[in-house]
Amino acid sequence: MLTDLYVFADSPVHRARPVVKIAALVVLCTSLFVFEGWIAVTVAGVLVFAGFALAGLGPRHAIVSLRPALWILAAIFAVQLYMTDVVFAGFIVARFVVLILAAALVTLTTRTSEFVDGILSALRFAPSWVPKAQIALAVSLFLRFVPLVRTALDDVREAQRARGLDRNLKAILVPLVVRILKTADEVSQAIYARSFD
Amino acid sequence: MIAFTDVSVEKNGVAILGGITVHLKERRVGIIGRNGSGKSTFARLFNGIEKPTSGRVALDAPHEREALRRHVGFVFQNPDNQIVYPIVSEDLAFGLKNLKLSARETQARIEAVLERFDLTHLRDRFTHQLSGGEKQMIALAGVLVMRPRMIVLDEPTTLLDLWNKRKFMTAIDALDEHVVLVSHDLDLLADFDRVLHIEDGTIVADGDPATVVAGYVASARC
Lengths: 197, 222
What we know:
- The complex is a heterodimer of chains A (197) and B (222).
- Chain A has 197 residues and is mostly helical.
- Chain A folds into 2 domains: 2-122, no CATH class; 132-193, no CATH class.
- Chain A has helices spanning 12-15, 18-34, 38-54, 59-66, 70-83, 86-109, 112-122, 132-162, 169-193.
- Chain B has 7 helices and 9 strands, in the order βββαβαβαααβαβββα.
- In chain B, strand 1 (2-11) and strand 2 form a beta hairpin.
- Chain B is α/β, with parallel strands linked by helices.
- In chain B, helix 3 (88-98) packs parallel to helix 5.
């Protein structure tokens, strides 16, 4: 799961300030599209793998990070292969792989609270009307509630399967959405109760 | 400790609570009542999650709603809805950050609350990987780390097995803070100082646990 990605360690990458990691990620991702070609992808790939090594992360972490996106990568490759040629399709997929691994390197080495602090630092100079704390909290809640929504989906699907409705999209979505909204309501109460403004 | 003066709550034109006046100063107060009686709404008034449509809720000192939130902690039935961060130590720090405490004070309070409930081994665990009992203890710790004067618990043992329920209640029994417990589990209230029975949005019985619970049980006989 997404929130399982953080790996406890004390490497230089783990210790780096979140805002620096986020900024580096933005620069790297932008560069990959500004400087097109295999050289840029190769250089970025080497940097990302160096980051993995420096953080003490192995191939297993890279594979786990890429696994959820494999079918999307396969679809992109197939479409590009149909529209262009195998070399360009390979280039596009390689670029996405480097982007995903670079993002994974940040999430694997940054706690959610640090990530939130990083976002707050990045928003430090934003205009006063920008709800900085709320944006940061929304990011943390997203990471926290991915597994919860997944569990709710499994529960609803199981309940509907018992009624023979597991292939009925409406029978799954309606109770799921109701449950998520009720959960969201109570979560907002809990956040309020814990002195968040 | 806390006083409700002619408090009413209406939602969408429907009266949920009507004209409640009560002063609670006991250390252990239980709230019972059937489903939909208004007891959870009443509990949510204690720390300002719910706002009265009319009337006033106040701590003994002349505090306003912000003070209620600061001095009264709230534990929900489902800890999954209360835990905000993916890692235990991060979640415990959440409320303290909102209080604008220093990093050193935050860390000291987290260590203290984890030690208090023998939860230190959970400090760096992912919250969604904890058992139901562990999650409820972390939810409780997340409230107590803010050092409230009173703690309100809304059916906190409903999702727990017998062992975790006993462990949780042992922790509650040992608290120095004032405790208000909403529960359908009447055995938990046996040693409490006072029990309120709420029906149809009003307090229909108020007194010692034996008397109030006996009346409640009698009213439930079909």
